[in-house]
Amino acid sequence: MSKLYVGSEVGQLRRVLLNRPERALTHLTPSNCHELLFDDVLAVEAAGEEHDAFATTLRNQDVEVLLLHDLLVETLTVAQAREWLLNTQISDFRYGPIFARDLKAYLAQMDNEHLATILLGGLAYSELPIKSSSMLPKMHRPLDFVIEPLPNHLFTRDTSCWVYGGVSLNPMMMPARQRETNHLRAIYRWHPVFAGQDFIKYFGDEDLHYDNANIEGGDVLVIGKGAVLIGISERTKPQGVENLAASLFKSGQAKEVIAIDLPKHRSCMHLDTVMTHMDIDTFSVYPEIVRKDLDTWRLTPQEKGEMRVEKADNYLSAIEGALGLDQLTIITTGGDNYEAEREQWNDANNVLTVKPGTVISYERNVYTNEKYDKAGIEVLTIPGNELGRGRGGARCMSCPIERDGI
Question: Residues 286, 368: one domain?
Fold first, then answer.
């Protein structure tokens, strides 16, 4: 049995979790897409085909691809998991006790395939064949959602992230994404791939409101050798970073966390939209955002479970120190200023490394891909005209669950 362990960003990738975009995208419209955190509506068929090309590219690199929809269907075959998920996703607090009871009864009689599709893809009031005495359905229009679709589940990177010998089940910042985490909690608890396996749950697996401790996997880079690089971004708070760091140190899985304070705007929503790790000593960086003067901190474990927080000179020297390297190679976004800004918006810096020096990138980012190529990085390109509209590239769309260290 292979081990659930992610030792780096660049070691050989062995197993990864993806989510093929399906029903959730059919519910995206120009009037609701912004609320659902998309900048635009996608051509659903084309997005699915692009995603298939991504999965095929991974399989061709000997990476085992797990699909979220399938895992969820298989998890729902476990009676306890089904009951827990229905109670958690259709709670009295979310719907009021009357409507929660009626909606749960309706969903409970669905087969697992249909139920998984609805939980991931959403349900409108017009699609609900049941009557309820609750006030709630009477106060909604037919096209309002009973269960909001989860189009951002496409970005499996954020909801949970594997760091060395364990996983963080991330308390997401945006309400449009918070339900996603419960699907992963159920899968990691009950699905046979994970149930009974030896891994640590660092954070986020309790039935709690995590308040200000938000963290998303797009900000977490497992750079290797016991170090973790985390961006404090639009969606990851210092409180989240410190909570995860405390748990990593307590379990002895990490020896230091480097935190970079990023500007808080959408074009650099997560650290991995402006910086990714491509080879042991090489990073791709969008220089307009990731500058040497960004505040950087080092968090390290102390005696008796305490944690030391100190300011680092800059992110480069902090990473060099953590990885024991003399100097990092930094490859910046390609093209002139306009081209670089456009390609960064289309995730030129958000590449997924499959083994040292080999990355997957959207083919549309011509200037940046050419620059990677010249620097000796092998670029495997995938189509992304539709997928990129969700503002996420190959790294965003993948959650490694097994990867070698460096």
Answer: yes
